[in-house]
Amino acid sequence: MTTKKYIRIAAVILTIIGALNWGLVGLAKFDLVAYLFGSLTNASRIVYSLVGLSGVYILSSIKRFV
Predict the structure, then answer these.
(1) pTM to 2 decimals?
(2) How many CB atoms lie within 10 A of CB 29?
(3) Mean pLDDT for all residues in the chain
(4) Nearest in space to 37 (alpha carbons), one of 55, 27, 53, 51
(5) Rounded distance between C-alpha atoms, residue 18 and residue 5, angstroms
């Protein structure tokens, strides 16, 4: 597999994780990332940033996924 394919797979997985986390926040008022890494610690900020960047990547390449 090419590097670009690995990046695409990682972006999809991180976007799904972000969606599940927001679903938990909305339905159960439970932030899984904050629970696992601490509320606004460096580790949780990195996870939130990676999820956000993955969303931007998916959005920029949406034509390839549809």
Answers:
(1) 0.83
(2) 7
(3) 92
(4) 51
(5) 20
Residue type at 6?
Y
In this predicted structure, the answer to whether residue 65 has a pLDDT above a threshold of 90 is: no
Give me the residue label for tokens 């590097």.
Answer: 3
The per-residue pLDDT for 63 is: 75
Give the dihedral of Cα atoms 56, 57, 62, 65; nearest 10 deg: -140
Mean pLDDT of 27-56: 95
Please state, in angstroms and rounded to a whole number, the distance separating the CA atoms of residues 23 and 13. Answer: 15
Count of CB atoms within 10 A of residue 63's CB? 6
Length of the chain: 66
**Which one-letter DSSP state was computed for residue 29?**
S
Placement of tokens 């997985």 in the chain: 13
